[in-house]
């Protein structure tokens, strides 16, 4: 049953005491702005050192590192698509980010995981459309998986939070 295992919250993902947080990274995995910058700052320089050994990450794929100084034990780094109008496989690539991150979490026996709103910042993916993809993919995954107990979608700012909440309610009620 999916209900109760997926939640939407508002705040700073780097503060969460969960088994893993997901990073909305870029193809280099060598840091950047937004949530990526915040995660690297909070984790400390050892995170970048480990990231250097990973040889980057393709869009839609995911790689895992330790969390270092973060309260989270693991960081799952995924790379969302840059929004280029919607006709360049953006939806499919964003769905892959959620699916591949959750598969990796399952392999590492991760029970609680938090996602930021991947691609909806610097990469300009429309928030509502991204939220629909996120909730659909998480729901589909949780219906088949029994290891992951809780998935949190962490929104930055009230506008993003309200949009995600509306999408989650729609999915739960259908
Ligand atoms: N906690 C939770 N969410 C956050 C936080 C935080 N501390 N900080 C920002 N967000 P973005 P993208 C939200 O731009 O669009 C980086 O430079 C933010 O408000 O971080 O996937 C990478 O290196 C937005 O809702 O990621 C890449 O180059 C969401 O996180 C590029 O940005 C994602 O925004 C990736 O762009």
Could you describe the 3D structure shown?
This protein has 174 residues and is α/β, with parallel strands linked by helices. It has helices spanning 34-43, 45-52, 90-107, 127-144, 158-172, and strands at residues 6-10, 20-25, 62-66, 74-79, 112-115, 150-155. β5 (112-115), α4 and β6 form a beta-alpha-beta unit. It contains five helices and six strands; from the N terminus they run ββααββαβαβα. The chain has one domain: Leucine Aminopeptidase, subunit E, domain 1. α3 (90-107) packs parallel to α4 (127-144) and α4 packs across α5 (158-172). The protein has a six-stranded mixed β-sheet, with helices on both faces. The chain is 40% helix and 18% strand. The mean pLDDT is 96. It starts with 5 loop residues before the first strand and ends with a helix. Bound molecules: ligand AR6. Residues 12-14, 24-26, 32-36, 38, 80, 116-123, 154, 156, 160 line the site of ligand AR6. Ligand AR6 binds next to β2 and α1. This is Macro domain-containing protein.
Task: Output the keywords.
globular, 40% helix, binds ligand AR6, 6 strands, alpha/beta, 5 helices, deacetylase activity, six-stranded mixed beta sheet, 18% strand, Leucine Aminopeptidase, subunit E, domain 1, 174 residues, Macro_dom
């Amino acid at each position: 049953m999916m209900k109760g295992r997926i939640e939407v919250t508002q705040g700073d993902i780097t503060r969460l005491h969960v088994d893993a947080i997901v990073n909305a990274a870029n193809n280099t995995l060598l840091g950047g702005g937004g949530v990526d910058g915040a995660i690297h700052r909070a984790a400390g320089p050892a995170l970048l050192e480990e990231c250097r050994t990973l040889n980057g990450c393709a869009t839609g794929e995911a790689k895992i590192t330790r969390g270092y100084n973060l309260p989270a034990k693991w960081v799952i780094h995924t790379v969302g698509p840059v929004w280029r109008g919607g006709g360049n496989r953006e939806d499919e690539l964003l769905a892959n980010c959620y699916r591949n991150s959750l598969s990796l979490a399952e392999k590492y026996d991760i029970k609680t995981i938090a996602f930021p709103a991947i691609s909806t910042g610097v990469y300009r993916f429309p928030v509502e459309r991204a939220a629909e993809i996120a909730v659909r993919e998480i729901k589909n995954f949780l219906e088949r998986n029994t290891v992951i107990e809780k998935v949190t979608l962490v929104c930055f700012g009230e506008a993003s939070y309200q949009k995600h909440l509306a999408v989650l309610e729609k999915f739960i009620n259908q």
